[in-house]
Amino acid sequence: MEGFDVVKSQYIKEMIAKGMREDGRGMFDFRKIVITPGVIKHAEGSAQVDLGATRVLAGVKLQVEEPMKDTPNDGNMMVSAELLPLAHAEFESGPPSPESIELARVVDRGIRAAECVDMPGLFIEEGKVWSVFIDLYVLNYNGNLFDASTIAAMSALATARMPKFEDGKAIYEERTKPLSLKNHIVSTTFGKVEGALLLDTNIHEENAATARLTIANDGKLIRAMQKGLGGSLSQAEIESLVDVSLSKYAEVKSSIDNLMQ
């Protein structure tokens, strides 16, 4: 298998050097995005996202908890990610891997930095707030988990409904009020292969890449960035990728907006 990966990476590099991609896409084209909402019955919000052959499931749960001491009037939010063994041969069961921790943190950082969730709106009463748990499950890995997971998380949040709170407890059988969102984030991840910059790399392109950059934006501002792999990116390259990232906002957000129609 390792020999196959080496040969495949060399083939990918040769194609990129000729200005072509394996699947015929342009350098800054996303693979097809398919969003299936409401796939987890007992979650407050959920969505499965297929980005090409990469598949991520996101679920949103809400629980009544105590607020953080430094934000007594705000709700809480936590993102977790699990790379299921069925998704790829190299994923193993057990404690969270460095890759799953990084994935959760990158998704969390974009949502938190853009203030997507109305945290003050999660306040219930003194000492009680709603905690929002966003759980990500990678079902199939074929490259670019960061963007697929961000789309899944935002789709689950966009379709989430608040449980009723009455007489000091949550009534999960009654969900009518939408979760209040103040902003929307889009993630764009680029790989550098043979000096060329590519958006939404598949697994073979990722294996051939020397550098990776994830940019999260809300259509107006860059909210978070994450550099990966050991290669470098010049200032000019980063500035050009920022422009591409902002230009892709409407395209990705429209896929999620369609869920609400």
Structural account:
It is a single chain. It contains six helices and twelve strands. Strands 1, 2, 3, 4, 5 and 6 form a six-stranded mixed sheet that branches. The protein has helices spanning 2-17, 98-113, 145-158, 203-208, 235-247, 249-257, and strands at residues 33-37, 45-51, 54-65, 76-83, 123-125, 128-140, 161-166, 169-178, 186-193, 196-199, 211-217, 222-228. It has one domain: Ribosomal Protein S5, domain 2 (2-Layer Sandwich). The longest helix is centred in the first third of the chain and has 16 residues, at 2-17. The termini are far apart. Strand 9 and strand 10 form a beta hairpin. The protein is an alpha+beta fold and 261 residues long.
Could you name the CATH class? Alpha Beta
Q: Largest sheet, if any?
A: 6 strands, mixed
Low-pLDDT runs of 5+ residues are: none
SSE sequence, one letter per element: HEEEEHEEHEEEEHEEHH
Structural class call reads alpha+beta
Beginning-to-end CA distance, first to last residue: 45 Å
Number of DSSP E strands = 12
* Name of the CATH superfamily: GHMP Kinase, N-terminal domain
Mean pLDDT: 92
Structural domain tally:
1
At CATH's second level, what is the architecture?
2-Layer Sandwich
